Amino acid sequence: xxxxxxxxxxxxxxxxxxxxxxxxxxxxxxxxxxxxxxxxxxxxxxxxxxxxxxxxxxxxxxxxxxxxxxxxxxxxxxxxxxxxxxxxxxxxxxxxxxxxxxxxxxxxxxxxxxxxxxxxxxxxxxxxxxxxxxxxxxxxxxxxxxxxxxxxxxxxxxxxxxxxxxxxx
Length: 169
Known about the structure:
Layout: E1 2-5, H1 8-21, H2 31-39, H3 48-56, E2 65-68, H4 69-74, H5 76-86, H6 93-102, H7 105-110, H8 112-116, H9 120-123, H10 138-152, H11 156-167
Parallel strand pairs: 1-2
């Protein structure tokens, strides 16, 4: 199992834009309204911290590889090599480069109308890291940091995310 995790602040930011672009799910008047819902576990698909906590039980399982979105953005070649090795797949240099190029956010966004139809524009917005800085107030940032520590502090997934997101930023 490949478990891809992401900075909770960017998860919230991305989901805010996604929610407001998808009519079947609840949308939010303001970022502040969304943030309250995100922090009080009132999201249609549940609480991100609870999701991470449930997966943390399997973080040491030899059949689970955890990688962060931030790792893949920072070094996609190494990320693909590690994923291929985990699954026991041997890639030539050409195949490796092909996978890296085709799995890039830019490539997927470019092809999103073909692969996802009308939802392509909603699913593939920016694909960046740290977009949360454009929405979070200082108080919201502190509240999410505190919630992160309460839910994920000292856990394997929490340590991995904290290192990738907070220590390498």
